[in-house]
Amino acid sequence: MLATLAFSLLTLQERPRLGDLETRSLLESRALTWLTQNATPLQADIPTPEELKPIVNALDTARVIGLGEPTHGDHQSQLFKTHAIRELVRQNKINALMLEINREPAAQFDAYVNEGKGDLTDLMVNSGLFSIWRTDDFANLIIWLRAYVVRTGNPIRIYGVDCQDAQVDIIHAINFLKLHDPERAKQAEKDFANLIAHNEDEKTIYVFIQSQPTEEFARLTKVCDELTAYLDSKKENLSSKPGFDEALYSIRVAKQMFLAYEFEFGGQEPDFSKMPPDYFARRDVFMAQNLVERLGDQRAALWAHDGHTLSNLPDYIAASGYKTIGSQLKSQLGKDYVSLGFAWTRGSFRARLVKAGTPLVEAQRIDFTPHNLSSDKPDDLGELLARLPHQRFIADLRSADEKTKEWANLPYFRGWCGWAVDPENWMKDPSQFAAPTFVHDVLVYYREISPSTVWELPPKK
User: Fold this and answer.
1) Is pLDDT above 80 for 209?
2) Which candidate, 4, 2, 15, places its Cα nearest to that of 426?
3) Same domain, 85 and 234
4) Considering 55, 141, 249, 443, which has the largest number of Cβ atoms within 10 A of its Cβ?
């Protein structure tokens, strides 16, 4: 379902055409006319403050803007987002950054930006930041945010809304208990002994989940509930202690990880084709909950993949039970959430080269390397947009006329990719890679993309 479903669902096939060709041609012609007249051209890959006005103006009526990326490994979307965030901060449109990363690395980046704690190089390499975002662009953004705080004294809070690091989160809660309730800390260490003993350097947390018997899912979620209930019962005595709320939150996101990977317990590679759509939505639902909890009275930018930030789910997708962070935020915040997504035509981006059917554990060990692919075939959104005179542009689809909005509901292969790609099956399955243009409120287009500038370092000794 859309781009976020597991890549293991892919099967070789001839790619079908999407819809009635005569109707598409008519609607496309009208849409190209509107885009030619209304899109804001970008003169270079780095947008200027003037070119970013559609993004800034979008925040006049919103509290959260979801900044997507079509792949986890292209340079242009990351570069665009970093400059959009800078401009939003400069104009006091946002004072928080929500990231598709886990709680602990975000907390460390927050302490660096707002208090000058830690070393940026160490944080980039060792904090637990996902390797896909260990890039020059992300590092430059963090440096700039630190400089902004130093110059103005205005904090820019950083939060991780993801839930894929149960080991670190549980240890965080136990460390709080060690300071204030040592006996209960000992019980928690016993309850989570296998998780605590897991060696992340040797095996991913996903390997840990698969190594546990099926019944361990129920036990781990139960002890998470028990630990949460215990801390709640001690709230009168402990809530004034520094870190109490964060300890409670860390237990909750640890449980979220177990729920998000429920069917991976038991050691067998799950059959994703038999999973209900709402299973794939669990992580997005949790991330949306976490974002709203962290948001409070702040205004924020969300940094995540296009497949997470999209807010306008087609009815047939929503009816299946599938959800995204963006669709959840749209239902909760209404017009206070605005989403931005990308399209592109040609170029290269980084991903793990994974053949269909490769076990996920093996896939995670594959190098994150550049691949030359395209979005320039009939029914690719990139092919249509390449007909425009603009090499790059921003278009606020919310201001489109009715005919253009009718076009924007047509499905297109989007050129979306997560952390893995199988070139032989690239954009062949409409159920995964075709979506309307109007799944985001604002569209950013680049005719050419290039690989992200990841920190390619020697292996850890």
Assistant:
1) yes
2) 15
3) no
4) 55
